[in-house]
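Pilot study result, target chain (214 residues):
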Amino acid sequence: MFDFINIELIDIIDIFLVGVLIFQAYKLIKGTSAMNIFTGIIVFYFIWLLVKALQMELLSAIMGQVMGVGVLALIILFQQEIRRFFLRLGTRYMDSRNYFKLASFLFGTKKTGFGNEELNEITQACRRMSESKTGALIVLANRSSLDYIIDTGDRLDARISRRLIENVFFKNAPMHDGAMIVSSYRIVAARCTLPISENPAIPAHYGMRHRAAI
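Predicted structure:
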């Protein structure tokens, strides 16, 4: 019955790699306005298929012209996400001294974490900053690679400590404005710029740090 289906090993590898790329694309646009744009494109595509099936020639021709420039439109609409993808791919993961970093980037196998001591230091710092009404934005990176965000700030590579965290976010300190990235039991960077929410429902009095946290 299915004799005409001839699946070889290369086909399985091909499908697997496409799945990996789709997964990475989803990780990049998840939680951003690009996700809404992507959803709109998918809806538009299925409407186009429906219009073609109903043989609505004029509307089908117009929508077909739009689909014809789809690749160029995708590059324009998702230029920031595409840039971040290639930046992540090209930064550090192709270093000849680290053969397995590319695989960890693609498949999310990079192992990072936080021990009780590190979490306690972060918790104490947050509690003290809350008491003094000091604003802070701390990103705890688990399996996600944030090199493209780390590169926007100042690299530290310091041991996690309550005093250091408080000093970084002390008002008018050189690195207080921006986010701190914590990964692999270390404070990796500070003064980093995070993607901000573009949700129009967010009150106007919320600043950049609030929008990034959302």
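One observation from the pilot: Strands lie at 138-140, 154-159, 179-183, 186-192. A full batch analysis is planned for the follow-on phase.
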